Structures are given as structure tokens and as C-alpha cells.
């Protein structure tokens, strides 16, 4: 069904192209078995070794062409192997493939660590004469040498051996932590009467068994609607606990071991703690600067949170006079109730305008206009699961332009698949060698016959967000070096393009083409749209403080002696300082907080990126968001350079100055001082 809808909008189709089971870029081609996964990864490890030997064999003057270029190819081979193994580990349909991919991820990580600690390679790179090289080559080499030093290459051999061992152990723990989450679905059993308040399509999907028992899982399509709509406080509480404890205590133990090893690694590399080490190659620079960012944003958001909570509690007490505070497991429910009452906004009613197929069509159409690209369905393209939709991306808004890359939309949950929403590369682009390919991992409703997949407001915003990541990967993935691609840009900038795209969702001109009632095809009424946008703006102080809570929690796990770290105590302290809601003592959210593996202490990056994203958005003309000149200027100045320049340069090139807090301040306080709609 999704293919038919897409084909109706993006008329051209392309052949899948000749691909074999030995496709060097796509691990999933040919339905590999575990042995095939191992062989595919090994071929890339062999290529990395070959390229490394090539650069080491140079006997004359060292240049970018004879030394940096083969290094980049070695790194690309390792990155390709890592991405392929990660994909099958996170999304492979068969457990034996996920097991094999996890084992191969360990091998690739070990090989990457070896290259990053190879002193001879570092010395060869450091001896390159780049006096006449281009700016991107100079930037790449300078950053590469810095990163080598951060890896510990300048340490003695005994220390490098310790670093290798620590990195291998950390990799194993990261893989185990994430695997526990991917396979950690829990469930509760309920009676039909407990589903009071849930949407009719939700109830229709959850039939009772012969004993009248209904099973609800902790997968997102089951979990989110309960937390927002279920009138039963007891049901919300039970499912909240099941959701947040589904990987506890196993992942608590894994996390504590990981923190200990990270601290040891940071000390070996000359840093006081892991938080300082992890910030050294970011825009922010240090853990102290992270604390300053959190403090400054808290000054902006805390007053707004207080005013919002005053209104929310006052309303909740009209419905339940016994309430003096709102527990975390009831936060979404009371926010939804308040928005329904105050703004005449029924979040269930708005779902009728967001069936999955229409939303996907709308996101693609919006991206086509904004980024000046065209999407073409690729029927029959090999994928890791039959449900995945494949589209080629070409330059220009109409068919026939130059091919820029490919995207894969893996949009619905299935057993063993990563439960989170994220986007990432599956093929790393490099000019003249490979076009970039990116994957969106979603867990949205729909995907089954007869199920329209009615999405919540937040689901649609999430779709826009992750699509922003993919456009960055595709449009910025055509650099001279793989190592200057979009994912090499400073990590506290990476979320800016995706968070900026979220802001377009609040425009009537963006929603009108696709936000139609799935039964009547009528567009969303003006009043409903306006109330939806007002309701969305209401709790920005609350939500910003929530993000600061997560940022502070992640930081404090890593900025002190791990022997003194108690995740439960730190989480409770973070709730007390930043959260508008009372913490459930059974809340073990850290056991499923996947950002603790990839982002570690750097969860703050979302907030710094948000500051940048909102500042970027002020450059667009509200009356002509998609078709004005700013859209193409943004593509050229921010997305296309990838990581060939620093993030600070990207910001200055687009804004004409560094980022400022004012747009964030206005965003948080939008409509807060005005009289609520009735």
C-alpha cells in the first residue's frame, strides 16, 4: 500500500540495479547466513589492511595523495563494515543473523581501535606536506591528528595496549546494553474495561483472548497511547513500570561496568574524568562548559516550567481534588487532558488527519520542496526486511536529475528490531566512489492490512526529525574524503538539521497537502490546527527542563569517580532539580536509555543543537518557508559541506554570526503569557 501511495506522488520508478550476494557495500544483499555475514565483514577488514599497508609502504615524500587518501580508504572500509554489522544487529529479522552481526561488530571495533592506536600510521600522517593542499584536506588532516592524540596514539606501547583492551571491553558492553533493549520487550495483562479512554483503533488491535485477557507490550505503538489516553491511573502506572524496568537489573550492571571502564580510559588519556574526555572534540569543549550550558538554559526554562505547572496542577485538581503533584507516569495523560480542555485540542481527533501513508507522503513532499530533491521508489531493491521502502534521491524537484543517494524507510516494529526511532547511514558516501545511503528506523503504527496507522502529533514530529538526519547524510555525503562526511561534524551540531526540520511542521502550508481526514479526505479545520499548535507550545518549559534533566543525569554519571555513582540516586536528584513531575521510585529509565551508549555524557548535544536549530529557523520567511531562497541557501551552506569544515564555520556561514539564545527564549515562551484559548 505504501508503495502505491508513493508511486502516485513520485511518478518515476527505477530498476533495483544489478546487485549480488557479494555486494561490497550492502551486507543484506543475497539473504546472507551467519557465515556470509562473517565473510562480508572480513572482506572489508582485508581491504582496510591493504590500504594501511599501501600508506606505510611509501618511501619518498609523503603527500595527501599517497598517504592521507589510502588512510581514508582504510577508514571507509572499517566504517562500512561497522555500519553493515550494526544494521543487521539492530534490524535483522533472524536471531542468528543478529548474533553473528553482534560478534562481527566486536571484530570491527577491535580493528578500528588498532588503527586508531597505530603510532606508525600516525607518524606517517603527521609527516605529510600539505602546503599546497586544499582547505578541506588541511582541515581533515588537522582534525585527524587531533583525534589520533585523543585516542592515545602518543602514549607508550604499554599504555596503548591497555587502551586497546579497555575499548574492546567497552564495545562488548555497549553491544550487550543495546541488544538487551532490542530484545527486551515486556508485557502486562489487562481486562478490556481498563482500556477506557484509548482510541477505538487501538482497542480494535488489542482483542481479548479466550479468558478475556488483553496483552499489552512495552513496544512504542502499545506504550505511547496508554500513557496519553488511558483513564486508568493504575494501568498507566503498571505499563510505565514495565516499560522502564524491562532491562533492569541486567542493564544497570552493564552500565556500571561501562562507567568504570570509561573512567579508566579517560585517566589513561590524561583526563580527570570521562565527561571532559568526551567533550574534547565537540563544539562545547569541556564538561564545565556543558554545566554552563545547562545552567543558562535552566534560567530560561525554569520560570516557564513553573508557570506551566501552576496551570496544569490547577486544572488537574478540578478533576481530582486530592492531587497535589503529578507523577511521571501520569504526565502525558494530564498534559493531554489540559490541552483538550484549555485549547479545545483533542489529540485523539487530530490522529484522523495523520494516517501513516499520508504522513509519509507529506514528509517526502515537504523534503522535496525544501531541499530541492526528488524521491523515486525503487521496486524490488534488496532490503534486510520485506517491509522496508527504498527510494532514490535525485537533484532537483522533478524527475531526471543527478542521483545524489538512496534512503531506506524501515518504519514499523517487528520482533528483535531496535525499538527506538533513529536514522543512520548504511552506505558512506565519497565523491567518485560511492553515493551515500541512509536508513530511518521507525516504530510507527500501521504497516498491516486494514490498519491506517493513525499517528499522534509527536509521532509526526519525530518522523520530520529523523528525516532531517537522512537529508543531512545524503546531501552532505559527497565529499572528497569519507572522513569529512556529515557524521564527522562535531556531535553537538549533528541534531541541529533534524531539530530545525521539526519547526516546519507548525506551518499550515506544510501540513495542508497531507493532513486530511483519512475517511472523508477533508483538510484539517483551521480551528483544530491553531489549537494543536497552541497546545504544542504550552509545555516547552516543562519539556526543556526534562531534556536538561537527562543531560545533567548523563553528565553526572561520567564526571565523577564511578565507584561513587548510584544511578538511582542520581536519577532521583535530577528529577528533583529539573522535572515538573514526581519520580516513580520504580523508574529505571537509565536501563533503556540508549543514548548512554552512543552519546555517553554528551546528551546535552540535543539542547545545544536546539539553540542552533531555532536560530537557523529564524532565517526562513514564515510566508514562504519551502519555496523561498533561504531553503536552497541552507542546503548549500549547512548541509552540503558535511564535515569538511567546523560546525562553528557552518553556523557563521549561514547566520553571519555565532548562534544566540534569543530564538530559544522566544520559542520556550511562545504564547505562555497570552490568555489560553477556550
Task: Give the SSE layout.
Elements: H1 2-9, H2 34-56, H3 64-91, H4 95-116, H5 119-126, H6 135-151, H7 157-182, E1 187-191, H8 200-205, E2 213-217, H9 220-229, H10 233-244, H11 250-268, H12 274-279, H13 287-319, H14 331-343, H15 347-351, H16 356-371, E3 373-377, E4 389-395, E5 403-410, E6 422-427, E7 437-441, H17 457-475, H18 496-503, H19 508-511, H20 526-538, H21 540-558, H22 567-578, H23 595-598, H24 605-617, H25 629-639, H26 647-655, H27 662-669
Parallel strand pairs: 5-7
Antiparallel strand pairs: 1-2, 3-4, 4-5, 6-7
Helix pairs in contact: 1-16, 2-3, 2-4, 3-4, 4-7, 7-11, 9-14, 13-21, 14-20, 16-17, 17-18, 18-24, 21-22, 24-27, 25-26
Structure explained in plain terms:
The chain is an alpha+beta fold and 678 residues long. Among the domains are: 32-152, Endopeptidase. Chain P, domain 1 (Glutathione S-transferase Yfyf (Class Pi), Chain A, domain 2); 187-244, no CATH class. 55% of the residues lie in helices and 6% in strands. Helix 14 (331-343) packs across helix 20 (526-538).
